[in-house]
Amino acid sequence: MRRLIDLVMLLGLCLGVQAQLARYSVAKSISHKHFVDSIDIEWENRQVYLPVEIGGKTYRFLFDTGSAQAVIFADRPIPGCVAAGQILSHDAVGASDTVKMLTLPPIKIGRNTFVGCQATLQQRAVNGRNIDGIIGFDVVNRGLNAKIDVRQCRLILTDQKNFFDDEPGYEVRYKLRYHVPYLIIKPYGRFSESALFDTGSRHLYAMNRGQFHQMADRVGPAVESQVEGRALGRSAIGLFGTEPLGEVVFLNFSRFRFGDCTFTDLHTTTTQGDSHIGASILEYGALVINPQRKRMRFLPYEQTAEIRVGNPQTEIAFVSDGGRPCVGLVWERGEPFRQGFRQGDIITAIDGRPVGSFAQFVSWGFERGRQYRFTVVNRQGQQREIRWVRLP
Hints:
Radius of gyration: 21 Å
Number of strands: 36
């Protein structure tokens, strides 16, 4: 991760209880059989993007394993979609709403055309993101083996069950919950938990706050050796809003285990959503998904069983508060806190230019290494100015 948290963590959807006519389905046809297809992907800001062709036009879709199905945004409709009822959709911060389900026109990913894919129609959580939609886990879940390799910038899809069997790596079993994969991992000592594999998140790992307290109860006082601080805050933004204000624990895991592979010096925070392993794990190795055996295999690029992460701790996170940019979380040991940012501060101007909305703040053209003058208003209505290098 970078020194400062990204403005937004768009985590994946989990589609749960069905409503009205819509039902989750992976019953779709694929144009090829007995194939191995290598697809060029983009690896940008710790997320995976796929080119998806629909109706002769190429779209840019986020590949999000934390989403059960595809997502189409209401502000960027795709011609040819057919209404298919409604479904109850749960977002990453635990909020839910009934949304429209669509059947997509034939979509082409690589050499294959997929017919009968479903998608939910959602409002965009954060404006200004250059994506047209989301491809969910159902593309793999229908029985295709997949290998994600961001170093080579490619996604390999195949219907050959044993194609990746000879590739060396570290396997972890997964179970489907709400049609998305949950892995058993060990964040500290012998404590194990179930974590969503969610490439919609930029984290390597984030821990559910309740799971942290369970770990503390089981491990005892020794767990404090993994704690770097606590604060009242919020940082995660789901499709239906920002997570509520609550306790956030800043963590530095000394030995985080993914199967027989160990990650050391891993900084992260707790979240009110599910514990999850995100796309940042792909910076350290390729990943093979085998839906027939319900297993994932991690293939470290450096062919080592122990990987030092050494990522800096999250220092500040911004969220939307009534449509305005707000400091959702700030770490007391970080530079933003030392410069004067506090949880709940509303950003009203940058270098004297008014900031009217969170969407405007997200799309602000910050230059790396440049100092900016932030005008903020605290909860008591007091205004002050803070000089801070937004992107060191």
